[in-house]
Amino acid sequence: MNMIFLMDLQMMLLDMIYFILRSSVRTVLRPRTKPIDGELVLITGAGGGLGRLFAQEFAKHGAEVVLWDVDGGANEQTAKLVREMGVKVHTYTVDVTSREEVYRCAELVRRDAGRDVTMLVNNAGVVAGKRMLDCPDELMERTMKVNCHALFWTVKAFLPQMKAQNHGHIVTIASVLGLFSTACDYCASKFAAVGFHESLAHELLAEEVEGVKTTLVCPYIVNTGMFEGCKIRYMLLPPLEPQYCVEQAMNAILIDQPLVCIPRLTYLPVISRAYVLCHLGRQRHEGVTQVHLHSLRSAFSFRLLPWEANVVTYRFMGSDRCMYPFIDAMSSQASRQRPVQAA
């Protein structure tokens, strides 16, 4: 057993070196993009912001698009823009927080389009814009349902057909704010979205479903008005232009890139939060080498950087408080809209 373990360890290290080298080469020599003309692409949150731009970008590549949004009017405006590009469009008013509605509309899509969705872009997102203790429970639940729970419902609705055909692509629009910052509802929901996507990707790899690809998109703050006033110190990272963000995401999708952080500087939080495998405890039981559950947990207890190092880095950049101006602006807006009661 010890020899098998050492051989597996050696193969793992060689594979790691190979993939690091391959990734380095790909930063210089861009891989060939895959054609997506004729694909049936479903985009949630398609009524505005990034969703509308994603719809237009997929249309440019000849894909047939399905637009889901809770705002039917905004969704139709997106559809009008896409139809002007000569692409077939299907629109549905869907509340993705309702799993029953998601499953029902998924069947409608199959009936209306006459085939299965082959690319799913989970883009819908909301934010409450309040500090944790000031945020009503209902708003927290809404954020978690839209930004996290909906991912489960949409994937469960469309992944079985992708696996059956061994063909498909699932895209999760998360955020680097899922790795740091100070808006508990949004950041926690995006952290959950990252965890969901990574778990899904590993599950597909474990099942050797090679034809279904996944791409996790983690952009910095995008200048869509959703986070008006949010910024970090010295404008080290100004808000991204929506078109640039979507173009970078599309570049990753078209080469089946598993993860893209936009801009590249935002890979640093991912690296700084990484864990280093430091110990695996083993025991002999009935002649078989086993790993202690307690030791397995301790194997992931050593961060690449100590927690305090992350804290001072965030504090220097201002990312620990970058959401506060946005939260204060949302509070002021709510106060102005509150009706004045007569004495």
UniProtKB/TrEMBL annotation:
CDD domains: 17beta-HSDXI-like_SDR_c. One of its GO terms (molecular function) is all-trans-retinol dehydrogenase (NADP+) activity. It comes from the Eukaryota. Its main location: membrane. Gene3D superfamilies: NAD(P)-binding Rossmann-like Domain. It is found in: Membrane. Its EC number is 1.1.1.300. Keywords: Lipid metabolism, Membrane, NADP, Oxidoreductase, Transmembrane, Transmembrane helix. It is a multi-pass membrane protein. It holds the Pfam family adh_short. PROSITE patterns: ADH_SHORT. It catalyses: all-trans-retinol + NADP(+) = all-trans-retinal + NADPH + H(+). It is an enzyme of class 1 (oxidoreductase). InterPro entries: NAD(P)-bd_dom_sf, Sc_DH/Rdtase_CS, SDR_fam. Catalyzes the reduction of all-trans-retinal to all-trans-retinol in the presence of NADPH. PANTHER family: PKSB, RETINOL DEHYDROGENASE 10-LIKE. Belongs to the short-chain dehydrogenases/reductases (SDR) family. This is Short-chain dehydrogenase/reductase 3. It comes from Takifugu rubripes. The gene is LOC101068771.
